[in-house]
Amino acid sequence: IVPYPTPYFPLPVLQAAHCQMIRDLSACLLGQNLRVDCRYENKTSNPLTYEFSITKDNRKQVIHSTIRASETNYRNRANVTMHKNLLCLYLQGFTTSDEGVYMCELRATNDYTGNQIKNITVIKDKLEKCAGFSLLIQNTSWLLLLLLSLPLLQAVDFVSL
């Protein structure tokens, strides 16, 4: 007896995959400011929403978010930049009162697998200074322009000799 082939119906639930995954969360001091880097892998072109928050004294406070409103004491001090697979939170005037557990939460639109969350404990005395090279990476267009103009600058310098 030859069985009839069963039709193949892929289930949408089984096809759902993580559209983004937080790879690394790190913090450093940039002068008097705190920088928290949230590196992620994005496997979708769907819009990405994020939230940076802090938990201290068993109370969660939103620092900067596209999901919900930020706490008033952080609104004027915090901003976020997004470049490729890196979200950077900058908190101006970082003091010991800003110490706590910082959390980065990512959510992609139509990602049914839930949010990606990672946290890091930030203590001012234990923070390292941000590396200068990573600052250049953030402003890639400036760096690229400089690198592209080097041959031109060398040629002009050669002609003037």
From TrEMBL:
<dbReference type="InterPro" id="IPR013106">
    <property type="entry name" value="Ig_V-set"/>
</dbReference>
<protein>
    <recommendedName>
        <fullName>Thy-1 membrane glycoprotein</fullName>
    </recommendedName>
</protein>
<dbReference type="GO" id="GO:0045121">
    <property type="term" value="C:membrane raft"/>
</dbReference>
<dbReference type="GO" id="GO:0005178">
    <property type="term" value="F:integrin binding"/>
</dbReference>
<keyword id="KW-1015">Disulfide bond</keyword>
<keyword id="KW-1003">Cell membrane</keyword>
<dbReference type="GO" id="GO:0007155">
    <property type="term" value="P:cell adhesion"/>
</dbReference>
<dbReference type="GO" id="GO:0005925">
    <property type="term" value="C:focal adhesion"/>
</dbReference>
<dbReference type="GO" id="GO:0005096">
    <property type="term" value="F:GTPase activator activity"/>
</dbReference>
<keyword id="KW-0393">Immunoglobulin domain</keyword>
<dbReference type="GO" id="GO:0030425">
    <property type="term" value="C:dendrite"/>
</dbReference>
<keyword id="KW-0472">Membrane</keyword>
<dbReference type="GO" id="GO:0051894">
    <property type="term" value="P:positive regulation of focal adhesion assembly"/>
</dbReference>
<dbReference type="InterPro" id="IPR013783">
    <property type="entry name" value="Ig-like_fold"/>
</dbReference>
<dbReference type="GO" id="GO:0009897">
    <property type="term" value="C:external side of plasma membrane"/>
</dbReference>
<keyword id="KW-0325">Glycoprotein</keyword>
<dbReference type="InterPro" id="IPR033292">
    <property type="entry name" value="THY1"/>
</dbReference>
<comment type="function">
    <text>May play a role in cell-cell or cell-ligand interactions during synaptogenesis and other events in the brain.</text>
</comment>
<dbReference type="InterPro" id="IPR036179">
    <property type="entry name" value="Ig-like_dom_sf"/>
</dbReference>
<keyword id="KW-0449">Lipoprotein</keyword>
<keyword id="KW-0732">Signal</keyword>
<dbReference type="InterPro" id="IPR007110">
    <property type="entry name" value="Ig-like_dom"/>
</dbReference>
<dbReference type="GO" id="GO:0007229">
    <property type="term" value="P:integrin-mediated signaling pathway"/>
</dbReference>
<dbReference type="GO" id="GO:0043209">
    <property type="term" value="C:myelin sheath"/>
</dbReference>
<feature type="domain" description="Ig-like">
    <location>
        <begin position="12"/>
        <end position="121"/>
    </location>
</feature>
<dbReference type="Pfam" id="PF07686">
    <property type="entry name" value="V-set"/>
</dbReference>
<keyword id="KW-0873">Pyrrolidone carboxylic acid</keyword>
<dbReference type="GO" id="GO:0030334">
    <property type="term" value="P:regulation of cell migration"/>
</dbReference>
<keyword id="KW-0336">GPI-anchor</keyword>
